[in-house]
Amino acid sequence: MSIIFDIETRPQTQILSELENNYPEFDPDSVAIGNLKDEEKIKKKIVDAGIAHLQKQSELFEKEHKKACLDADLGKLSAIGILHIEDGTREIIDATHNEADCLERFWQIVDGIKGRGQWAFGWNIEGFDLPFLFGRSRLLGVQYDPYMITNYRYFDKCFVDLHKVWTFGSFGKFCSLKKASKALGYEHKKMDVKGGNFYTHWESTDVATKDKAREYLFEDLEQTMAICSATHGLIKGSNKEGIIDDDAFGTR
């Protein structure tokens, strides 16, 4: 059956550690006092400089954190969400403890789709998901069909980038999934989880926190399904047996 898929990523732990360890500590003696004589004013200037230092550190950390999440050389998979369109079942392939196994499972699903002449839909998958998946597979030595990429630019016809479909392939035009689904009348849920902090929720040992990550990923799949229905006329089936994702697919 055809699928909707979406990936969630995180920075590699080593990258975050290096970023934290390499940033210089604040040195009060480096603050230029100038002609100040008043002790209170001097203290205030040093405190303000310390606050500015921490702010700059925080901004740099956030910038590098985001970059790592988007770069296969600096980041890694956290999870892959899959919605099986024909019966509506949903699967989350966990990459927390074994990213290679996660990738192997995904490519097995894609091979089955290709063999049946079906589709793998996603939002902006040509711009992000697929390059990240192929990049991580290459670095981890996970095998995939090399003929799914032509000239390192064109992907197999089984992949359908709904962002490209939605924008009619307009060069340089970007539309968020939320904006597109909202235009279709999709009712969005308010969530604490975002793409950048998904992994902190997903890796939590607290069940309620992990469930928030699960709900966020499923929400992305449902939004993408709404786009798929509008562009390709496909309707999500119903899971008649009421099987939840873990029981149906053995989430790792």
Q: Work out the radius of gyration.
A: 22 Å
* CATH homologous superfamily identity of the largest domain: Ribonuclease H-like superfamily/Ribonuclease H
Order of helical and strand elements: EHHEEHEHEEEHHHHH
Structural class per helix/strand content? alpha/beta
Largest sheet: 5 strands, mixed
- The count of strands amounts to 7
Distance between the termini: 22 Å
Strand content: 5-15%
Q: In one word, what is the shape?
A: elongated
The largest beta-sheet arranges its strands as 3-2-1-4-7
Question: Outline of this structure?
Answer:
With 252 residues, this protein is an alpha/beta fold.
Task: Give the helix/strand layout.
Layout: E1 3-11, H1 13-22, H2 39-70, E2 75-84, E3 90-94, H3 99-116, E4 120-122, H4 125-140, E5 149-150, E6 154-155, E7 159-161, H5 162-166, H6 177-183, H7 198-202, H8 207-232, H9 245-249
Parallel strand pairs: 1-4, 4-7
Antiparallel strand pairs: 1-2, 2-3, 5-6
Helix pairs in contact: 1-2, 3-4, 6-8
Q: Can you tag this structure with a few keywords?
A:
252 residues; alpha/beta; Nucleotidyltransferase, domain 5; 2 domains; two-stranded antiparallel sheet; 9 helices
